[in-house]
Amino acid sequence: MRLTEEQVRAFREDGVLVAEGVVADADLAPMIAEYEAWIDDRARALHAEGKIADLAEGADFGHRIARLYAQSKEIANGMDVMQLRGPATFAFLRNDNLLDAVECLVGPEITCNPIQHIRAKPPAESAGEGLGFYNVPWHQDMAVTWQEADDSEIVTCWLALVDATVENGCMEVLPGVWRRGYLPHQPGEGGTSVCPEALPADVKPRPVPVKKGGIVFMHRCTPHRSTPNYSDAARWSLDLRYQPAGTPTGRPFHPEFVARSRAHPETVLTDHAEWSRRWVEALESSKGIRAHRV
Ligand SMILES: O=C(O)CCC(=O)C(=O)O
């Protein structure tokens, strides 16, 4: 779905845009089916090891993993994009409806940045309320790249795979703050976060709920966080980043690829095995490298 001029203007102004209905259920279905099959296999393996008693068969995408996670946190191990490396997920990274919207923000030559995550945020009852991968502290995405990417127009695309609500822990943003540039960050157990004294006190956090298939687009200097999930189902989402081809990604040790090119379509990577191979190799060779700048 292409963005309207008004949407593009709003993104440029606020550094954040909530766009509903960017991709259709049919666009997401193969990737969701891939994850459902993987979760089923993993649940059966954990069941065989005696770590899970109830397979929660018949529960929907959000409820099944929540019920499994409550029994064993191991259900989520190995599920992230670069770990599972599913063909349907790789194909989705080049989804036309998604890239039509991205093109309106970064232009027609598009690189897929390797910072790409899938998150099934479990209910707080089992995952807790502490900061971490599921309840991320205030940060700018610029803080999780190397300085080489400071001038790269990296746009974060936070895509809801189920309806994301205030109750289940959607994103919160500080609109307009991107204009202040990079804010000092600090490392911490809960994740890289804006130093408390640098967090703007004059801007009210805006929760950005979005329905399944909608995207929250964020500038790389837009502070954002997410809060605990107080529902009984997982909050599934995908956070991807795209940028003009040829600009540094800030993660030179992880594989980027050209997702769309109007000028040189032959440069687009469509070979799933090659993408997967590059990730396997990079995960091995980048061990011990500090990915965040603090
Ligand atoms: O999905 C979340 O809860 C956090 C996502 C995030 O921090 C990001 O996309 O940069």
TrEMBL record:
InterPro entries for the chain: Phytyl_CoA_dOase-like
Keyword Oxidoreductase included in the entry's annotation: yes
A GO molecular-function annotation: 2-oxoglutarate-dependent dioxygenase activity
Keywords: Dioxygenase, Oxidoreductase
The keyword Ligase is assigned to this record: no
Pfam families, sorted: PhyH
Protein name per UniProt: Phytanoyl-CoA dioxygenase
Organism: uncultured Armatimonadetes bacterium
